[in-house]
Amino acid sequence: MLQTALHFSHTLLRDVIHEGDCVVDATMGNGHDTAFLAELVGPRGLVYAFDVQEQALANTEKKLIELGYQARVTLFQQGHEMIDTQLSTETSLRAAIFNLGYLPKGDKQIITKPDTTEQALDALLPRLLAKGRIILVVYYGHFGGQAELKLVQEYCQQLPQEMYNVLTYQFINQKNNPPILFCIEKK
Amino acid sequence: MLQTALHFSHTLLRDVIHEGDCVVDATMGNGHDTAFLAELVGPRGLVYAFDVQEQALANTEKKLIELGYQARVTLFQQGHEMIDTQLSTETSLRAAIFNLGYLPKGDKQIITKPDTTEQALDALLPRLLAKGRIILVVYYGHFGGQAELKLVQEYCQQLPQEMYNVLTYQFINQKNNPPILFCIEKK
């Protein structure tokens, strides 16, 4: 079976992340990707994970403790627009992941916003290592989702091809708005 | 590095094709994909390969002889609109590949056409096995290319999601019109 966008996001991360790497989970949510990243970076690596919602941090922390991964993850109860403030400009990142939309099973009123997504991307790109990847899995079926999708599309399309490859991976015959994956790879 | 559309087409084929399978190369060209498919299907398998151009058959035959794969390939000097005529309705196909555009290093006046592409797809879909894949790598920078891209997009989008998954894989920040990959997977 063809991989879903979510599965393919993990394949693309697994391809580039090695033990000891620093990476960012820009949308912690229930901590699913945070835990996945923590496994990939190993005991010498570091995951910075961001979310505004207290429930997201509680769920993620619980998951990390169960897996024994707490020491390799730093959780911020802040939106990903704070990446630039929280991460030193010297930090070299191998990868970052965004799941844009709302927290699954959470409050559908609390959604990610185009302007903070843009701020986060502006902070991540200069810190990204060569061959590093930023992946955005964009859910856009909810109110406000189309505006965010448009921002991501336009932001990605204008990235200079001399410095970045930008890929989209998308199912086009489905009526239930499956997420679209964007992958920005630094050359 | 992110796989090019061409590389990813091979990954998607390798995932599903096994020894003994029957598959179609709808656009033989210089025989690159024909040889790749012949390797995957092995000595008990069969590749049906189509091209209108004599030079394509000559190049492909030479390549197959060098590799010792002649016995597992049937070459047709006919366009892929003849698939329905040449293949029995009983033929079960695991996969098919199209490289739409023109023969690399060949006559740029001889291009693939939307109407024959549609006829070929209409013939392939009912012969495709469950979990089988039809892959189209669409070059669209040349004269007539946009019309073909539009046909493929519209054809794919209207395929019922109960029966098919249709994926696109595309680089979106490049000015040299890199090809777009479409993958139709039968459920």
From TrEMBL, chains A, B:
Gene3D superfamilies with a match to the protein in the record: Vaccinia Virus protein VP39 (3.40.50.150)
Keywords per UniProt: Methyltransferase, Transferase
GO molecular function: methyltransferase activity
Example GO BP: methylation
Pfam families registered for this protein in UniProt: rRNA_methylase (PF06962)
Database matches in InterPro entries: MnmM_MeTrfase, SAM-dependent_MTases_sf
Protein name: SAM-dependent methyltransferase
